Amino acid sequence: MSTATAPQKGIIALIYRDALGIDFSNRGISSTVTEVTVVGPGIDPIFEPTDERPAVRIVKRENASGAIYHAEPLPSDELPAPWYMFGGTFIFSSDTRFRNSVGFYGAVPLHDRRE
Fold first, then answer.
1. Distance, CA of 59 to CA of 86 (rounded, Å)
2. Other CB atoms within 10 A of residue 14 CB
3. Could you report the per-residue pLDDT of 72-105, keeping only the tens digit for each?
4. What distance in Å separates the CA atoms of residue 49 and residue 36, rounded to the nearest whole number?
5. For a surface tag, which of 14, 25, 30, 113 has the fewest beta carbons within 10 Å of its beta carbon?
């Protein structure tokens, strides 16, 4: 897997999708893999991203109601930083480091759809 910077390490999270198997990601990473490697602040690094487990980061945005979290793929040489949107899948890990990075216990939307 080629990235613009040195590969980061992270933890593994599963991708949860619609039970009907419909792909709304427009060929996003969730259309081809079942796991991702979550990297970034608050994540105690263990695993390197691979093609089977591409790297994603947790993005936190503040609004009037509080913080909103989602995950998005890291930019790479092949994929510069585009605008991502929700493609219908979520990521989750039972690892407490995942919960600590997002501040709650639950699944996080995966924004991997590009148009």
1. 13
2. 13
3. 998 766 655 568 889 889 999 988 888 888 878 8
4. 8
5. 14
Neighbour-count burial of 1, counting CB atoms closer than 10 A to its CB (0-12 exposed, 13-18 middle, 19+ buried)? middle
For the chain, the average pLDDT equals: 84
Residue type, 14: L
Q: Name the percent of the chain in helix, strand, coil, to the closest 5.
A: 10, 35, 55
Q: Which amino acid is at 28?
A: G
Which two tokens mark 8?
């980061």
pTM: 0.82
Question: What are the pLDDT digits (tens) for 13-71?
Answer: 999 988 887 788 888 899 899 999 999 877 878 899 999 999 999 988 898 988 889 99
Please report, for the chain, the start and end positions of each structural domain, with discontinuous segments joined by +: 11-110
Q: Where are the beta strands (DSSP E) in the chain?
A: 11-16, 35-39, 55-63, 66-73, 89-92, 108-110
